[in-house]
Every structure is written in C-alpha cells, then in structure tokens.
C-alpha cells in the first residue's frame, strides 16, 4: 500500500479575525474519505481537523454566530478560518438595502466585480452560464461532474457571505460548447459573432433574462471588457431587452468585468456602446466602499478555489484602492438616463464609507 502523503501546512493570508457576530460558513471542498480529511484533494493535518470535529464543521452553515459556540469549539473554528476551511459572513442585514439585480455571466463574475457593492446593499445575482467544468486544479480536471457541483457550491457560499440572493439559469459555459472549442475571446470588432454563431442560445438567454429583470430595481450588466463570449452574450441580451422596451435604460448600469479590466481598456469598451433611445454612451461613476465592505468582499472571493487564484483576488482589491484613492471603490458605467439613480446610490455608499472611516 502506498504511503499516505503528509499533510501540507494550510495558512490563508488574511488579516480578518473572526468577530463575535460573524457567521462561519464551511467550504464545500472538504472530503471525508474514512482515513482522514482532505481539502482540495490534499490531506488535512489531524491537529487542525480532528476526526471528532466533523459534526462541528457541518454546523458551520452561516446561520450561527461565532460567539455562540463554547471556547474550545471557537478555537477550532478560528483555526479553520485561518487555514481557509471556513469563511465568515457578517451579521445579516434585516433586508436588502436596494433591489439590485446583477447579471453575472458565470459564478464569480458578480462577486469579483461588485462584491463590495453587494456587501453594502445586498441584492440578487443571476448566473447565466452557470454549468461549468473548467478548473485549473488537476485533482478536479479528471472529475468534471464534481468540479461542476463544487463551482456552484462556491457560488452559494460567496452569496451567503455577501447576503445576496442567487438565481441560477443553467446555460453551459463557452469552454464546454463546441462553437468555441478553438477559443472564446472576441476582439472589439467581432462582438456580433457571439449572437450570429449561436442565435438560438442568444434568444434563450434573452428570454430568460427578460423574466429576471421584471420590476423596477437597478440592473447591473457586464461591460464585457476583455471580450469573453459569455460576457458579450449577456451584455448583448440586456441591450436587446432595452431595444425591445422590456428593460428601461434608466434602470441599467454596466460594471467592469474582473479580472479582465485589470489589463484591458474599460473606457474604450464603454465608448463603443450606444444604448437606449438617446443612444447615450455610459459615463464612469465610482461606488465607494467602507473597509468592512472590502473585507467582506475578500471573504466572499476566498471560496472560489477551483478557478480564481488568490493573487488575482488580491490584485482586484488593490485595483479598488487605486480607483478610490484615498478610499476604495468599484466602478460602474452609467447611462445618461440612469445617472440620477446611480448617483444617489454612489452618494449613499460614500456617506457610509466616510462615516465608517470616522
């Protein structure tokens, strides 16, 4: 019998310590194989996760405040948080502060781009191409069904941290569609190819989104920076809803796709759009965030272990500090028709960030 590998040390780079009212949420990548515990396919040190702790780990479901456990169990949970086996959701807000709907091409897109905004205001994330199997981790590449399940489970945990509702539409990711086998990134002049290549899929996506944007709340749409075909399809479907008068342009703003906006030109992408009856071009609006909201966004990004590198998450947070200097911010691109509504949202966020800073 081959020798069982020694557990690797597990330390998450975080400065966030668990607060009394935080709600610990277990990550879905933990497996119990009879001989021990594995996380992301690797053995976990029994000192970190004794066999007697399985019941406690399962109890970390985001419903119970950290302070409610006895001290010995709190010590175990704190160790799991430091190692990255659990994340911490802040005390839940009484109700969403705004009826925001974020159209997210894939699980993780809304959180990477707008995690701080969702942490502050709540809202609903609508995942469009939510059936995925791609992962950078070899352990899961040969297990596509498991990878698909875990990618959605990661999304549920992240939304739990942010206090956001989740709707999953179930369309298949471009990486698993034959039309894009040779590559699924489009140049600026090729965006029409997304709709022309898969016209039936485009109509299905448009119809699904029409049902999700009913009502009067703000709708946040990917700008499609970087040209990923699924981001382009999501954006073009929203534009089609505006053209068909099923979605009012005064409700719409565009967000900068992450991490693509770190190395592609969001300003140029926004300049190529002409939306609504006035054919208006979106203008940038910064949405400030408090340090508490930024910390919550960082917690919400940690569950994405199969696709998102920790270095990418950290770079996104640094980018937010550059945008919001001397504070922190995420950036929307707002239509002339929706400038007042999103200006009010930005002002409300700025007031809270300023008050929190003291």
Task: Explain what the structure shows.
By secondary structure, the protein is of the alpha/beta class. The protein is 39% helix and 13% strand. The chain has twelve helices and twelve strands. The strands form three sheets. Strands 8-7-6-9-10-12-11 form a seven-stranded mixed sheet, with helices on both faces. A three-stranded antiparallel sheet has the order 2-3-4, with no helix packed on it. Helix 5 (144-162) packs antiparallel against helix 10 (291-301). The longest helix is centred in the middle third of the chain and has 19 residues, at 144-162. The radius of gyration is 21 Å and the shape is globular. The termini are far apart. The model is unreliable at 1-9 (pLDDT under 50).
How are the SSEs placed, and which strands pair?
Elements: E1 23-26, E2 30-32, E3 37-39, E4 42-43, H1 54-59, H2 71-83, E5 86-89, E6 101-104, H3 109-121, E7 124-127, H4 138-141, H5 144-162, E8 165-168, H6 192-197, H7 199-212, E9 219-222, H8 229-243, E10 252-255, H9 266-271, E11 283-288, H10 291-301, H11 310-324, E12 329-334, H12 339-357
Parallel strand pairs: 6-7, 6-9, 7-8, 9-10
Antiparallel strand pairs: 1-5, 2-3, 3-4, 10-12, 11-12
Helix pairs in contact: 3-5, 3-10, 5-10, 7-8
* Overall 3D form: globular
| Helical amount | 25-40%
Rg result: 21 Å
Q: Could you list the spans in which at least 5 consecutive residues all have pLDDT below 50? A: 1-9
On the 0-100 scale, what is the average pLDDT? 91
Which class best fits the helix and strand makeup? Answer: alpha/beta
* Proportion of residues in β-strands: 5-15%
In angstroms, what separates the terminal alpha carbons? 61 Å
Element order: H for helix, E for strand:
EEEEHHEEHEHHEHHEHEHEHHEH
